[in-house]
From TrEMBL:
Its cofactor is FAD. It comes from Gemmata massiliana. InterPro entries: FAD-bd, FAD/NAD-bd_sf, RIFMO-like, Thioredoxin-like_sf. Signal peptide: none annotated. Belongs to the PheA/TfdB FAD monooxygenase family. Pfam families: FAD_binding_3, Rng_hyd_C. One of its GO terms (molecular function) is FAD binding. This is FAD-binding domain-containing protein. Keywords: FAD, Flavoprotein, Monooxygenase, Oxidoreductase. Residues 8-355 form the FAD-binding domain. It comes from the Bacteria.
Amino acid sequence: MSQSHSCLVLIAGAGPAGLTLACDLARRGISFRIVDKADRLFIGSRGKGLQPRTLEVFHDLDVIDDIIAAGAPFPGFRCYAGEQVVWDRSLAQMIGIREPVATPGVPYPSAWIIPQWRTDEVLHNRLIRLGRNVELSTELVAFEQDADGVTATLVRDGVQERVRARYLVGTDGGRSFVRKELGVGFEGETFETERTIIGDVRVDGPLDHDHCHLLTRAGGISSPERFSLWGLPGTEFFQLVANVSSDDVPALTLDAMQAMLEARSGRSDIRLHDLRWISLYRVNVRMAERFRVGRVFLAGDAAHVHSSAGGQGLNASVQDAYNLGWKLGAVLAGAPVELLDTYEAERMPVAADLLGITTRWHRQDFGGPPAGAEVGSGHKMFQLSLNYRGSPLAWDDRAAPSGLRAGDRAPDAPCSGVGDVPTRLFDVFRGPHFTLLAFGARSHDVATEINNSRHRDFVRVYQVVLPSRGSESACLIDSEGFIHRAYEIDPSTDATKLVLVRPDGYIGLITGEENSATARLMRYLEMVAPIGASGDGVELNASR
């Protein structure tokens, strides 16, 4: 017997993308359901590396303290020839960059290692604190859409349920039912001759928990010659990684893994036990032809899959959800429906670039040129250089912008707030709102105009001032000049400059001519801010 229920958003899949989206919608007060056909959250360590940009997202979602507590700085690599240590190298040395250090603009400079199951657990716990939960053992088996919404069929314990939602988001992995049901192509290639075994196991022997141990017979680290064991912080487990050819795949058993370790390392003093989880991974490099069909969206592995080289997959999934969440929230609150078009416009180019670079990194791992030659500054791997320049939502009105531009990640900076209390921009940005940083003599007037407009609940306005000029409650005191430098504002001029930061931490607008700054801001807000229940919106590229 079927039942009927409704919600605004139905999320199919409770991995990193689905959980991130659920947390974002929950803090916005959006009615949603998140379902997964599995009877528990993922139990493996698979996507164990969080990049700095993802840590910034988790700062905004208010889970960063739990993530930091449950993980550790990304470990160094220790290569062995038999029992002999051949070399120790940091991640920075492995990819050919300088050792990253925290700066005022980048508080989380390095990758963080944490088992994927723990990341999922942290996000799920945050969701519970927000008063929501994942519906496990609940499978999406059918859906159809019309002009007003999506009608989905869920099955739990053999009982069917009909759900009516305004939007459906498929975050259901590389074998996505949602993508297949939409008939969306998944173009790309499969590396048929290569396989990777990944598992979680306890280890007895002379290996510490603070390294990635590259076990080989002769010290060569090309993939077919090594057996890797990564210490997983906060646990007694290691992640084992071994690349194999497709015609020589061993049984996925503890005994077979022990035999492979001994064959590749020539060692018998390292004993594996308690194999908790194991998986055979075939490298697919594929991207969906569309990330959106009507009222149905694809995110995470449902939209793109690629090599694990560079540790980008889970991070890209989080970024998809983070990009989509605020847009769904705004449209459901009455913003122009055209805003949703920008999800595909912004995320597809990022995914395409990601597929290309991770494939190159993968081939380097299989004996190609040095990784550092490709990675360069490391910002691409760390996702700090990820940007949406050229997006319909990136307006840069300056005559000749250079350096920081609209569409770029908004930098952090320490500053002071009311009562000279220390704060930082990332804490100012935290939450489901836009943030306006107003510089110059007319910043007070701009703040007053916004606070008296219908946008006052959607945009938080802060006048950024030097210590000698700060007195109002909505001021950020830039005592050390970090904000002015980060946003390339000349503190010696009184010219009014406005920088609008999106809820996902990217710069939407940087104004140019002082006389038109407020008008341009209002025009931009017409694209993204709630205007009423109709959802009839503004053409997004009308002013470009």
